[in-house]
Amino acid sequence: MKETETNTKLTLDEILDSDLMNSFIKEQDETLAENGWTYEEIKSIAKIVTKIGMIKETYIKATENYSKSTFTIRKYVKGNLVQKYRTIPMTGIEFIEAQNNTDNDWAYFLQTSNDYYAI
After folding, report:
1. pLDDT tens digits for 41-57?
2. How far is residue 9's CA from residue 56's CA, in Å, rounded to a whole number?
3. Could you tell me the residue ranges of all domains in the chain?
4. Contact 75, 83 (CB under 8 A)
Protein backbone atom coordinates (compact mmCIF):
# COMPACT_ATOMS: atom_id res chain seq x y z
CA MET A 1 0.00 0.00 0.00
CA LYS A 2 1.18 3.48 -0.84
CA GLU A 3 0.44 6.25 1.61
CA THR A 4 -0.64 9.65 0.42
CA GLU A 5 -0.33 12.33 3.07
CA THR A 6 -2.53 15.27 2.34
CA ASN A 7 -0.70 17.37 4.84
CA THR A 8 3.04 16.93 4.95
CA LYS A 9 4.06 17.38 8.54
CA LEU A 10 7.50 18.87 9.10
CA THR A 11 9.04 19.73 12.42
CA LEU A 12 9.54 23.39 13.18
CA ASP A 13 13.30 23.01 12.93
CA GLU A 14 12.96 21.34 9.50
CA ILE A 15 10.82 24.26 8.30
CA LEU A 16 13.12 26.92 9.73
CA ASP A 17 16.28 25.22 8.43
CA SER A 18 14.85 24.49 4.98
CA ASP A 19 16.59 25.85 1.90
CA LEU A 20 13.45 27.78 0.97
CA MET A 21 13.23 29.54 4.34
CA ASN A 22 16.95 30.26 4.45
CA SER A 23 16.82 31.61 0.90
CA PHE A 24 13.84 33.81 1.77
CA ILE A 25 15.51 35.20 4.87
CA LYS A 26 18.76 35.86 3.03
CA GLU A 27 16.85 37.70 0.28
CA GLN A 28 15.09 39.77 2.89
CA ASP A 29 18.23 40.27 4.99
CA GLU A 30 18.70 43.91 3.99
CA THR A 31 15.11 44.79 4.86
CA LEU A 32 15.27 42.85 8.11
CA ALA A 33 18.58 44.47 9.05
CA GLU A 34 17.18 47.93 8.26
CA ASN A 35 14.33 47.18 10.65
CA GLY A 36 16.63 45.79 13.33
CA TRP A 37 15.77 42.08 12.92
CA THR A 38 18.28 39.25 12.95
CA TYR A 39 17.92 35.73 11.59
CA GLU A 40 17.90 34.29 15.13
CA GLU A 41 15.09 36.68 16.17
CA ILE A 42 12.98 35.51 13.21
CA LYS A 43 13.53 31.88 14.26
CA SER A 44 12.53 32.73 17.84
CA ILE A 45 9.31 34.38 16.70
CA ALA A 46 8.46 31.36 14.54
CA LYS A 47 8.90 29.07 17.54
CA ILE A 48 6.64 31.27 19.68
CA VAL A 49 3.94 31.31 16.99
CA THR A 50 4.11 27.51 16.79
CA LYS A 51 3.75 27.15 20.55
CA ILE A 52 0.57 29.21 20.61
CA GLY A 53 -1.03 26.94 18.04
CA MET A 54 -0.78 28.82 14.78
CA ILE A 55 0.24 25.70 12.84
CA LYS A 56 -2.52 23.40 11.56
CA GLU A 57 -3.61 20.93 14.23
CA THR A 58 -6.12 18.84 12.27
CA TYR A 59 -5.24 16.83 9.21
CA ILE A 60 -6.41 13.85 7.19
CA LYS A 61 -4.21 11.04 5.87
CA ALA A 62 -5.47 8.65 3.20
CA THR A 63 -3.87 5.27 2.52
CA GLU A 64 -4.53 3.57 -0.80
CA ASN A 65 -5.32 -0.13 -1.15
CA TYR A 66 -4.72 -0.84 -4.83
CA SER A 67 -5.97 -4.43 -4.78
CA LYS A 68 -9.36 -3.43 -3.32
CA SER A 69 -9.59 0.06 -4.92
CA THR A 70 -10.35 1.60 -1.53
CA PHE A 71 -8.85 4.20 0.78
CA THR A 72 -8.46 4.12 4.52
CA ILE A 73 -8.98 7.69 5.71
CA ARG A 74 -7.57 8.70 9.09
CA LYS A 75 -8.45 11.96 10.80
CA TYR A 76 -5.93 13.35 13.31
CA VAL A 77 -6.28 16.15 15.83
CA LYS A 78 -3.10 17.43 17.51
CA GLY A 79 -1.30 14.35 16.20
CA ASN A 80 -3.78 11.89 17.72
CA LEU A 81 -5.93 9.58 15.61
CA VAL A 82 -9.56 10.47 16.30
CA GLN A 83 -11.45 8.59 13.57
CA LYS A 84 -10.79 6.02 10.87
CA TYR A 85 -12.92 5.37 7.78
CA ARG A 86 -12.81 3.12 4.72
CA THR A 87 -14.26 3.93 1.35
CA ILE A 88 -16.37 1.42 -0.50
CA PRO A 89 -14.60 0.00 -3.58
CA MET A 90 -14.26 2.61 -6.32
CA THR A 91 -14.22 2.30 -10.09
CA GLY A 92 -10.81 2.52 -11.72
CA ILE A 93 -11.28 6.16 -12.76
CA GLU A 94 -12.69 7.20 -9.36
CA PHE A 95 -9.76 5.53 -7.61
CA ILE A 96 -7.16 7.22 -9.84
CA GLU A 97 -8.81 10.63 -9.39
CA ALA A 98 -9.07 10.19 -5.60
CA GLN A 99 -5.29 9.64 -5.40
CA ASN A 100 -4.93 13.40 -5.95
CA ASN A 101 -7.35 14.38 -3.16
CA THR A 102 -6.26 17.04 -0.70
CA ASP A 103 -7.17 17.43 2.97
CA ASN A 104 -10.14 19.57 1.95
CA ASP A 105 -11.24 17.06 -0.72
CA TRP A 106 -11.32 14.23 1.82
CA ALA A 107 -13.10 16.41 4.40
CA TYR A 108 -15.73 17.30 1.77
CA PHE A 109 -16.00 13.61 0.80
CA LEU A 110 -16.68 12.67 4.43
CA GLN A 111 -19.31 15.42 4.77
CA THR A 112 -21.19 14.80 1.55
CA SER A 113 -20.77 11.16 0.60
CA ASN A 114 -22.26 7.92 1.86
CA ASP A 115 -19.57 5.90 0.09
CA TYR A 116 -17.58 5.08 3.23
CA TYR A 117 -17.98 3.56 6.68
CA ALA A 118 -16.31 3.95 10.05
CA ILE A 119 -13.82 1.28 11.07
Report:
1. 877 777 776 665 545 67
2. 9
3. 3-7+56-118, 12-51
4. yes
